[in-house]
Design goal:
It is a single chain. Helix content is 56%, strand content 6%. By secondary structure, the chain is α+β, with helices and mostly antiparallel strands. The N and C termini lie far apart (66 Å).
């Protein structure tokens, strides 16, 4: 097996290959200028044509003009490659004053590995760790710093640590896990490798600049002169950006293989160098990485995502992952023994204020995985784990129950299908709102109207202002019927398959489709609000951690959506489950709870009831309400009682 020095030599060789491609591109750009100089000197000395030879004079000036054009284009491309801002990972910077023990651990580790220490430490809400070069002038960094003997040494990269590692791992495990990462600072500060990386990152940033410019929407202009100037600018800018993107992609294709092999050689050299540092403990730490990733994924998708969708963000996600992994260790016998490590010193003790750091990383996680605002506000407030069941779980269930009843109000009742909608049956009970709601949907009055919480905002035109409704202009006419009481019995009755319908229930399909439309409308509203926030704060962003908007984070969608879209049947099952839970809370003394691995949970008698899925699916998919009725009788839920909605 090759040692660290052999790996470093291989990385340098690949870096030189990348730099040779850069030199070849520069030579191609200078070749017309060299030819022009040769022709001009040859003409002046009389060795290539004469000064009065019109043919050679035309050739000389044509070559000079071409050389000038090529030099200008090359200078423009080089300026963009050098000045374009490379992609920067969103992180939470950790100052040395806030984590002196963590910096001391990293420096001691670098000293044992005989490599330069990282220049800074930052945290990311992800289960990964890496080194990141932030010496670009756009990031406010410096490429060189004062070194030993009065010389100038390259600045070491920044060490980025996954925040779940700090809370779940012990100090010794974190040191063993970071050993191969910190060992990579040795090759990273080599001038050739650093130059090759800067060149590749510059090309990648130039491609991004060209892509953004090509898809940039024109800003609204006032007046014909401004519109003409803007159109001329676009006509000139788009071909220039297309040429820039073509050159950058061409160079990237040429050095792609060499850059990939260079990074592999750097990683191999770092791994070899870290073999002598806590090798046995590093095997245990790698097992913890997989466990932490599983717990972090479940915490984000099952626990944090419902809160994010309601405008709340859990402020202690990293502390929550410890509870989630402890619960996983209790349930899964494959994870037995992992919780026994909790008696050792956790790595988060290396921070002076772990609560503040946890809050900052939790807010960044909400921005990355959900696209939330960069700062807390009235519509984007933190929530503690102790208040999560009441402020998130209970409110989520009641919002979903209210949405389900609004959709049911807009659907015709199966028993009222043969009869036309007339004002006389207004006093016939819950079956009357069906035809009126259906007519309002068909006319577009519900789809275009604003959404209102609760069954009262179901879109029924009860004020007589809807087009085509009975009594639209007659004062003495009968009033539109009020929506039916929000009871679980009503939901079960509407979703139960009628005798003349298929066993799966056609109404369930209609309700599921309508729920999908309602959620899509709410998501579109959320994206519009996020776009407005991005426009309002886009100019103030100075990068991640600055507190302003960031073009890499703030936008129409999150960078890493944590959950794929759900089907209509899944949405309907979730809403029926929410209705059942609301009825259990209001009539059977149940309580909302939090399961660290599964998210919102229903507590009956202080214990979680996890057997609700089958009865709900039987009702949603088969139109059979008997399993659910049996479950309600066992728990003591009164389905005919109205539930409280929001």
């Amino acid at each position: 097996m090759a040692g660290p020095e052999e790996g470093a030599q291989a990385a340098r060789a690949r870096a030189l290959a990348v730099l040779r491609i850069r030199g070849a591109a520069l030579a191609v750009a200078l070749l017309p200028a060299a030819a022009a100089v040769v022709l001009l000197v040859g003409g002046a000395t009389g060795r290539i044509g004469g000064s009065h030879d019109e043919g050679w004079t035309a050739v000389r000036w044509a070559v000079v003009a071409g050389a000038v054009v090529v030099l200008l284009l090359a200078a423009a491309v080089a300026a963009v490659v050098v000045r374009a801002r490379p992609a920067l990972s969103p992180t939470v910077p950790i100052a040395e004053e806030t984590a002196p023990d963590l910096y001391r651990l990293v420096r001691d580790l670098a000293e044992r590995l005989e490599v330069p220490a990282p220049s800074a430490v930052a945290l990311t809400p992800d289960c990964d760790s890496w080194l990141e070069d932030r010496t670009h002038r756009a990031h406010g960094g410096r490429r060189r710093t004062a070194g030993a003997g009065g010389g100038r040494a390259p600045v070491a990269p920044v060490l980025v640590i996954g925040s779940p590692f700090l809370w779940w791992m012990r100090v010794g495990e974190l040191r063993a896990l970071l050993a191969p990462v910190v060992a990579g600072t040795g090759p990273s500060v080599h001038p050739d490798i650093a130059a090759a990386r800067r060149f590749v990152r510059g090309l990648d940033a130039a491609v991004a600049v060209a892509a953004r410019g090509a898809h940039e929407r024109p800003a609204p202009r006032r007046g014909a002169p401004e519109a003409a100037v803007a159109a001329l600018g676009r006509a000139v800018r788009r071909p220039a950006l297309a040429f820039l993107g073509w050159i950058a992609r061409l160079l990237l294709r040429g050095c792609r293989d060499h850059a990939a092999e260079m990074e592999r050689a750097v990683a191999a050299a770092a791994s070899e160098r870290a073999q002598a540092v806590d090798y046995g403990l590093r095997i245990v730490a790698q097992e913890q990485v997989g466990l932490a990733y599983a717990g972090w994924d479940r915490l984000l998708t099952r626990v944090a995502l419902p809160a994010w969708r309601m405008g709340r963000w859990p402020s202690r996600l990293d502390a929550g992952v410890v509870s989630a992994l402890t619960e996983l260790s209790r349930r899964d016998r494959l994870a037995e023994g992992f919780a026994s490590r909790l008696s050792d010193r956790p790595a988060c003790d290396l921070l002076e204020e772990p609560g503040l750091i946890d809050e900052a990383t939790s807010l960044l996680a909400a921005r990355l995985f959900h696209g939330g605002p960069s700062e807390p506000g009235p519509d984007w407030s933190p929530v503690d784990w102790g208040a999560y069941p009441e402020e998130v779980v209970d409110r989520k269930w009641r919002l979903e129950a209210a949405r389900l009843h609004r959709v049911l109000d807009e659907q015709p009742h199966p028993g009222a299908d043969p009869a036309p909608a007339r004002p006389e049956p207004a006093e016939s009970g819950p079956a009357a709102p069906g035809p009126v709601a259906s007519g309002s949907v068909a006319s577009g009055s519900v789809a275009s109207g604003p959404a209102r919480p609760g069954p009262e905002g179901s879109g029924l035109a009860g004020n007589g202002e809807g087009p085509g409704l009975p009594g639209a202009g007659d004062a003495p006419g009968p009033a539109a019927p009020e929506p039916a009481a929000p009871t679980l019995a009503r939901v079960m009755d509407r979703l139960t398959a009628a005798p003349d319908r298929a066993p799966t229930g056609e109404l369930g399909e209609e309700v599921a489709a309508r729920l999908s439309v309602e959620l899509a409308r709410e998501e579109a509203l959320h994206r519009a609000e996020a776009r407005a926030r991005s426009r309002a704060g886009g100019g103030a962003g100075e990068g991640p951690g600055s507190g302003g908007g960031d073009l890499w984070i703030d936008g129409c969608a999150p960078l890493f959506p944590p959950q794929p879209p759900r089907t209509g049947r899944e949405l309907l099952a979730d809403h029926v489950t929410a209705m059942v839970c609301c009825a259990a809370i209001d009539t059977a003394g149940a309580a909302p709870g939090l399961d660290w691995l599964d998210g919102p949970a229903l507590l009956v008698g202080g214990r979680r009831r996890a057997d609700l899925a089958y009865p709900v699916l039987s009702l949603v998919e088969d139109g059979d309400a008997e399993p659910l009725r049996a479950w309600l009788g066992e728990v003591g839920v009164r389905a005919e009682k109205p539930v409280r909605l929001v």
